[in-house]
Each structure stands twice: as C-alpha cells, then as structure tokens.
From TrEMBL:
UniProt domain VWFA: residue ranges: 118-329
Comp. bias regions, Low complexity: 37-49
Annotated region described as Disordered, given as residue ranges: 17-49
Pfam families referenced in this protein's UniProt entry, alphabetically: VWA (PF00092)
Name by which UniProt lists this protein: VWFA domain-containing protein
Length: 349
C-alpha cells in the first residue's frame, strides 16, 4: 500500500533536467592498458523488473521516466506526521559534526573513504518487516536511516540512490550509464531519505533480495565490462541492503555470479561491496547472512565483497555509534572491519 497523503510527498519537485548528470561515475582514462580478463556474457544479467513487484504510482509524486534527482523543498521534521512515524525511546544519535560540516572539513573523518564510492541503498519493504512488537523491523529501518543517512549523503557528492525490494518508482534510470531503473536518485540530504521511507505506508510482499541485487547491479556490471575493455575506470559502488534478513530467494547464488564476473574482469577488490544491515530479531536469517558473509572466500574461493551488521534497535537506546557506524557503511569495502562487531549488534558465536 502506498501513502497518498499530500503531506511530504507533495513537496517533491524536479530539480534537474531530463538528461543524465555526467558527474555520476564518469570513467577516468588510464594511461596503461587494462589487465587481461575473460569476457563474461551479458546474458547472465537481466534488467527487466519482475512482475511480482507493485508499480502503483504515488499520488502527487512526479514519477518522471528519466533519470532525475529529487529533493524535498518544505520538509519539516518537527511538524510532519506520517503513518510510519512511531513513538519510541529508541533513537539513533546523529553525529552533528558529520551532518553539518562542509565537505572540506570531512577529510579527516573515518567516513572519508565513502567519497570514493557511489552509495546505493536497498531497503526491505516486505510484509515480514512489520511482524513482531514495536519497534518492528520496519520502524528500526527508520532508526537506522536516522543514523547512517546524514553520513552517506554527506560523502557522495552527486547523491545516493535508493531502491526498495517491492515498491518501484516509475523512473527508467540510465541503464547505459550503469544506473538501474525503479529507484530514487541523487539524494543529497538525510531528510530526503527519510521522506522516501515514508512513501511506503505499509510494507507488503515477499523479500526478493537476490533478484533486486542482480537487477540493481546488472547495468553497473555491463558498463564496468565495457569501460574495462576500453582501459577506463568506473567509480566503485557500495550497496547497503537494510533488511530483516529473511530472503524469499537465493541471494548467495546471485552474489557469487557477480563476484566471479568481477574476478574475471580483474577488477579491484573494492570495485563492488555489498553491506547487509540486518534489523530485527530473525535468528535463522541472521545466521544465513553471516554464512553468506563467510561463504564467498571460504567456500567458493572468490573475492569477499560482503559484510554483515546485525543490529537490534530494542537492545540499545543510542543505536549504532562510533565504530559501529563505520562498519555499517564501510564494512563491505574495508575488510579489516569485516569481523569487527558493531555497537548495538549481536556478537557472533
């Protein structure tokens, strides 16, 4: 079900032309030829959205077909009320120095590496996210976004992209430039990320984690192969998946395919990272994500491009902070953080 209230969504305006911004991941020419690699078949990727997803347009929302940026122009967190908003003592402290500092003041921050990556959020809006007592996993997504959104938006100069598991925007993205359709693009402030979260009035549907990861990364991988062959670099991508972890499909198989293609391209180990940020208490799902984190290198003997943070907002009054935030946003691309437990997360056995 999609929220149709004019509050919030009516404020979204188109602030960009219909053309694609050249600032996202513009390849940088190299003076040396690319390494030898085995060609991979583009047939292994599909950029056709599944018919099981809802594509109902949002009232008062400009669902433009081209790749455009959106920003709220009258967003008031103090007076705006959404059906998703809940009363809870579980709040996540946002580091104000990161949120408000200009870019040149962020150079010494532990999050500075994020500026080298395009950051993409994939948010689980399946029905299981509302199961259990408050705060539900869906409400904990909001708490997580309060913590990480100010950081990841501050460090991606051209803005982050946001996708849902089930709700699809009408945007066609820019597949030729490596950007999949059905997302919300170039988001440059935390309020906009929270506004997008509020568009889903009630989570519903299955959890096609693997399919959505493949769908989002397919255009990027196609472009990466093309640019690598031409001897040019492509800006690395950091995909953060916020989920309760209970996938309906087989994300491991999809991630293994992507990792093998990256190995065939001899791409840098940090070219693509997938960070699973698990919310809620789904013990079996937690174990499945941790197994996936371990499987790539130990079982398949391919690159380790996955990390997992398991956080339960019920267990902490402050949410993630300090090293926990660093791991949550950088764990998949900084491997020394991979085994480091985050504050607020459950320890591995």
């Amino acid at each position: 079900m999609v929220k149709t209230s004019a509050v919030g969504v009516a404020y979204w305006q188109n602030n960009a032309s219909s053309s694609y911004s050249p600032s996202r991941g513009v390849p940088e020419t190299q003076s040396i030829p690319p390494p030898e690699y085995a060609a991979t078949s583009s047939a292994s990727y599909s950029n056709t959205p599944t018919t099981s997803y809802s594509n109902t347009p949002i009232a008062s929302y400009n669902n433009a077909s081209s790749y455009q940026s959106y920003s709220p122009t009258a967003y008031n967190t103090g007076s705006t009320s959404y059906s998703n908003t809940f009363d809870s003592p579980y709040t996540s402290a946002v580091p104000q120095a990161v949120e408000n500092a200009p870019p040149h003041d962020l150079d010494g921050s532990p999050y500075a590496l994020l500026s080298k990556f395009d950051t993409v959020l994939l948010i689980d809006d399946s029905s299981s996210m509302e199961w259990g007592s408050a705060p539900t996993a869906w409400q904990q997504v909001f708490l997580a976004l309060q913590t990480i959104a100010p950081i990841i938006t501050a460090y991606d100069a051209d803005g982050i992209d946001v996708y849902f598991m089930n709700y699809l925007s009408k945007s066609s993205g820019n597949v030729s430039e490596g950007v999949a359709a059905t997302g919300f693009y170039k988001i440059q402030d935390a309020a906009a990320v929270e506004e997008i979260w509020s568009m889903v009035d009630r989570p519903s549907g299955i959890t096609p984690t693997g399919e959505r990861i493949r769908y989002i990364l397919a255009p990027y991988m196609k472009r990466l192969k093309k640019e690598t062959k031409a001897g040019r670099d492509v800006k690395p991508l950091n995909l953060i998946v916020i989920t309760d972890g209970a996938a309906s499909d087989d994300p491991e198989s999809e991630i293994v395919k992507i990792a093998r293609d990256l190995d065939k391209l001899d791409a840098p180990l940090t070219q693509v990272g997938i960070q699973f940020f698990q919310v809620g208490k789904v013990g079996s799902a937690k174990q499945a994500l941790e197994d996936l984190d371990d499987a790539l290198e130990n079982r398949y003997h391919i690159r380790d491009m996955v990390d997992t943070v398991t956080w339960n907002g019920r267990d902490t009054q402050a949410g993630l902070s300090g090293d926990g935030i660093v791991k949550a946003v950088l764990g998949a691309i900084v491997k020394r953080l991979d085994r480091k437990p985050a504050s607020g997360e459950h320890q591995r056995n």
